[in-house]
Structures are given as C-alpha cells and as structure tokens.
Recover the amino acids of this structure.
C-alpha cells in the first residue's frame, strides 16, 4: 500500500490535469485515473516538470526505437527490483 | 515489439549479464584467467569461438577466462552467453544495450566497460549510447521514487496477454 494518499486527478490544479491528458496520449491508454507516477510527479511541478521532460527526451526515438527504450527501462526497473 | 518472446530473451540477457559481471567484478583481481594456449584444446576451441563472436578481439573477456579453469563449465557458460546475445527476436545490438543498462545499473565496472565497447563495435554512435544512459538514469530515478512511496503497479493491463504456446508446444 502506498505510503501516501494518491490524489485523484480532479484534486489537482488545471495545469496538472492538462499534463495528465498528455500522459494519457503518451501511453495511448485510457486510465481510470492517471498513472500513479504521473500523479506523484504532478505534486511538485518544479521537480516533476523537468524530470518528466528529461524522461520524455530520453524515451524519444533516436538510434533506438521507443519500444527498444521501453525494454531498457523494464530491465533497469527489474534489476532495481522495482515492482511498480 | 509485441509478444512474450522478446521478454523471455531480454530476461535471459539480464540473467547471463549479471552472472558474467559478478564473477568478473568479484574475482577478476583475485584469480588468474586461463591464458590462450595454456589450457586444454577444448578451452582453446571455445576461445576461438569467443574471439569470433566479439569481432576477432585478441583478448578473452575476463568471465570466460576465469570459467576456463573448468573447461566443461566454460563450454556451457559460453554456449548460454552466445545464445543469449545472438540475433533472434531481439537483435544483438538491442541485447547489448540491455546488458549495458543492466551493468550500469548494478555498478558493474567490468560489464559497463565491456558492453559499452561492444555497443560501439556494433555501430551504435555516441548519441545512441547517451540514449541508453538517459533511459537508465531516468528509470533509476523513477524506480526509487516509486519504491520510496511503495506505489503499486497500475499499468499491467496495457499490453495484451500473449496466448501463443511455448516454442515447439501446442496451442494454448
């Protein structure tokens, strides 16, 4: 169980809700609530904003495709033993 | 990149990468690798295959040199490593990127240097290497934030279940 109460999307201010829409497009998936990490990052936009941009930049297709990068992300998460 | 096959392959790359790294990092300074020509004919045959697989390099990578203390063990470890890193559903280039990311994440000095050199040898440019570094770094942040807050997975249903049978098996 999370150590914090994850707020629903409608508890966030409008700019964060717009970011949740972008997140939905990024994942191309209709979450009932934005992904937990999206809501965590939206808690502090001065951290979550640049962190999210760095993440998006890192995941953008280049020499490696988005799919290949998702696989790199998965193995990094795996060796970090991260269930999320 | 749909289906389970690529994930099975990725998992095997992660496993054998870690296996090679722990021995090289843990024992590289403590045990002497078997030098080419100093072991059995079986060892030299494996070494020839290792060199060919890694582009004709003269040097035998440390984990295989250490494994060669037991020629039969070396042969099996090498067969598994060669199979894991060979082109299949995933390309060798992608598998090497995975191995580099795993090595960097687990702070393996041997694996990081070895797979970085392999990425370059396989034609990945510095921008491509930085892409892998960026993904590794950002997900090393993401995972720790998620773990600190003990977040529960909420994206498990994004991908469809792969109902295809195991290789050589019957329909599910």
């Amino acid at each position: 169980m999370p150590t914090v109460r994850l707020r629903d999307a409608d508890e966030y201010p409008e700019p964060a809700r717009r970011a949740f829409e972008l997140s939905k497009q990024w994942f191309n998936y209709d979450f009932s609530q934005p992904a937990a990490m999206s809501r965590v990052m939206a808690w502090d936009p001065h951290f979550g904003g640049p962190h999210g941009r760095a993440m998006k930049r890192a995941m953008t297709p280049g020499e490696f495709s988005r799919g290949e990068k998702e696989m790199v992300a998965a193995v990094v998460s795996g060796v970090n033993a991260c269930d999320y | 990149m749909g289906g389970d096959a690529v994930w099975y392959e990725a998992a095997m790359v992660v496993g054998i990468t870690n296996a090679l790294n722990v021995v090289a990092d843990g024992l590289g300074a403590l045990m002497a690798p078997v030098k080419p020509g100093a072991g059995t004919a079986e060892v030299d045959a494996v070494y020839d295959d290792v060199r060919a697989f890694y582009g004709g390099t003269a040097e035998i990578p440390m984990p295989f040199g250490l494994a060669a203390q037991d020629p039969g063990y070396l042969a099996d470890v090498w067969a598994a490593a060669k199979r894991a890193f060979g082109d299949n559903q995933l390309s060798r280039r992608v598998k090497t990127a995975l191995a580099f990311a795993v090595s960097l994440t687990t702070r393996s000095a041997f694996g990081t240097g070895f797979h970085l050199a392999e990425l370059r040898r396989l034609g990945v440019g510095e921008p491509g290497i930085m892409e892998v570094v960026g993904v590794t770094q950002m997900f090393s942040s993401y995972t720790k934030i998620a773990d600190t807050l003990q977040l529960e997975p909420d994206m498990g249903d994004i991908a469809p279940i792969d109902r295809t049978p195991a290789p050589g098996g019957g329909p599910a």
The mean pLDDT of chain B is 94. The longest helix of chain B spans residues 5-27.
